[in-house]
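Key result, reporting period 2: structure in, sequence out.
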């Protein structure tokens, strides 16, 4: 069987030997046995690897204070900057052919792909500093709220590096274990990543074309609808709008029903269009409301935060405006009216 841990049997330094070893923990050893049974890993190799994995406190601190917990205006301002817009236009121009190809193939306009890359990694500048195996192991075994999810991602990661002949300790990414320019989690990497530049390798950490094609594939696979809008600003009156907002971001309500909840979209919608309502909050300021459609829900499959999807939407509008001149204006920041 192909060996995939390059130089994993190197001697452990005296300092590292003082750290608690995951390989000695019963739950990790049980996880190893599961991988051996399901995927044919060699037990002694996995145990040797886990003896070198480091519990990373900064990962645990970061996962408990994500950027998506900030107020909307503060969060948005971090991404809607002149430099990020200008650099996004530069990235768009440099990768125009790959973006146009992805639009033809998957139906996703270039501005949304570029905006995702702008929010995720500043177009590849900030792809993460943590060793992915350390981050995922720390979260899989020392972060109970989401341990099952991260164990699943750790399993995907070990399969990814084994199948690719990659040194398990060489890959760096976000505190959550996301990898490369588009910040794919290992499960998404294995399912949706593409060799879009045709060089025979999938390289999300170095190939802009691979990142572009992979994002298009991800969004299309999650239901992106070619030519359909994403979201519109909205006015709300009274308190019944809360019943609509509390049902989540999945588009489950007919546009014809919005007036009954006290919601008026900034743009008229077909009566049978399915939509949802989100509230974007900033303490001390009136909330911003948006009626969201299917493609907005698809954006939240990339990151389950409404702040994230809304920042991508707004950055996409600014990128399109900066590159081609003023298009139709983005969804206005319409505030709640007093009843």
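The corresponding designed sequence is given below.
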């Amino acid at each position: 069987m192909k060996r995939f841990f390059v130089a994993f049997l190197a001697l452990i330094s005296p300092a590292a030997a003082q750290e608690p070893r995951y390989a000695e923990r019963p739950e990790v050893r049980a996880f190893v046995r599961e991988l051996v049974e399901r995927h044919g890993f060699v037990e002694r190799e996995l145990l040797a690897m886990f003896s070198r994995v480091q519990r990373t406190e900064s990962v645990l601190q970061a996962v408990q204070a994500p950027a998506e917990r900030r107020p909307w205006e503060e969060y948005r301002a971090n991404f809607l900057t002149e430099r990020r817009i200008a650099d996004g236009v530069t990235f768009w121009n440099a990768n125009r052919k790959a973006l146009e190809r992805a639009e033809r193939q998957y139906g996703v306009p270039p501005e949304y792909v570029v905006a995702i890359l702008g929010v995720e990694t500043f177009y590849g500048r900030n792809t993460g500093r943590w060793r992915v195996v350390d981050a995922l192991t720390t979260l899989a075994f020392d972060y109970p709220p989401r341990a099952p999810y991260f164990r699943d991602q750790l399993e995907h990661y070990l399969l990814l590096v084994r199948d690719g002949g990659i040194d398990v300790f060489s890959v760096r990414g976000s505190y959550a274990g996301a990898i490369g320019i588009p910040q794919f989690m290992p499960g998404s990497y294995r399912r949706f990543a593409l060799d879009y530049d045709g060089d025979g390798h999938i390289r999300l950490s170095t190939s802009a074309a691979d990142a572009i094609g992979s994002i298009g594939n991800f969004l299309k696979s999650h239901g992106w609808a070619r030519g359909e809008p994403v979201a519109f600003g909205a006015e709300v009156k009274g308190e019944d709008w809360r019943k609509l907002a509390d049902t989540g971001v999945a588009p489950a309500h007919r546009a014809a029903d919005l007036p009954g909840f006290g919601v008026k979209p900034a743009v008229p919608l077909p009566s049978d269009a399915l939509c949802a309502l989100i509230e974007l909050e900033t303490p001390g300021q009136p909330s911003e409301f948006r009626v969201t459609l299917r493609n907005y829900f698809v954006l939240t499959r990339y990151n389950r935060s409404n702040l994230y999807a809304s920042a991508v939407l707004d950055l996409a509008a600014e990128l399109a405006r900066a590159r081609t001149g003023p298009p139709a204006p983005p969804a206005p920041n319409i505030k709640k009216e007093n009843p």
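The first helix runs from residue 14 to 17. Residues 21 and 51 are 5 Å apart (CA to CA). This case is discussed further under Risks and Mitigation.
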